[in-house]
Amino acid sequence: MAIDKIQSESINLADNFAFTGTVTGAGGNMTPAFHAFLSSSQTGLSDGSEATIACTSEIYDTDSAYDTSTYKFTPQTAGKYFVYVQAVVDSSGNANLVGSDLYLYKNTTLSGRGNMNYQGNQIRLATLYTSAVLDMNGSSDYVIAKVYADTGSGNWLITGSSWQGTYFGAYKIIT
User: Fold this and answer.
1) Would you state the pLDDT for residue 31?
2) Which pLDDT belongs to residue 2?
3) Contact indicator for 149, 97 with CB cutoff of 8 Å
4) Tell me: the pLDDT tens digits for 4-47?
5) Predicted pLDDT at 82
6) Could you report the per-residue pLDDT of 83-138, keeping only the tens digit for each?
């Protein structure tokens, strides 16, 4: 069925149409994109320390732009990217969390932060989230996610499992 003219009073949006021309100005490519998660916990992290989140299990990585050994996303396509990260921080049963921070870095510059200060409450587990829209140059820019935790004493860990509580991802925004 060819469409010569669409009149609002006669179009049936439930119909299927076969277009034979070029549709412009619609859609776009939201890649490179990736989503990775921490499949097993990172343990033995010292009080007052910062750790890179080691998401080694990928759900998808359209352009092989996420490195599962350095935990960096380095898209080779310039543009704006929506980057997101969530981490589950656990006091490892040794102490209570005093505070924790989730950091998103573009190269070495802090570009996103999620944090909790527990104000003396006895907290052993916290879920932190942050996201940012970042302009990436398509050659050398990268993003990486890190967590900091203060337990007052004792070790802490980043919880990882198959339910994907700790994850890291990004995708190119169509502009």
Assistant:
1) 92
2) 56
3) yes
4) 555 555 666 667 767 677 766 667 788 999 999 999 999 989 88
5) 98
6) 999 999 988 776 778 888 999 999 999 999 988 777 666 678 889 999 999 999 99
Amino acid making up residue 146: K
- Cis upstream peptide for 32 (omega within 30°): yes
2.60.120.40, 3.40.50.620, 3.30.1250.10, 3.30.457.10: CATH of 33-172: 2.60.120.40
The three-state (H, E, C) secondary structure of the chain, written as one string: CCCCCCCCCCCCCCCCCCCCCCCCCCCCCCCCEEEEECCCCEEEECCCEEEECCCCEEEEECCCCEECCCCEECCCCCEEEEEEEEEEEECCCCCCECEEEEEEEECCEEEEEEEEECCCCCECEEEEEEEEEEEECCCCCCEEEEEEEECCCCCEEECCCCCCCCEEEEEECCC
The encoded tokens of residue 48 equal 């007052």
Q: How far apart are the C-alpha atoms of 106 and 83, rounded to whole Å?
A: 10
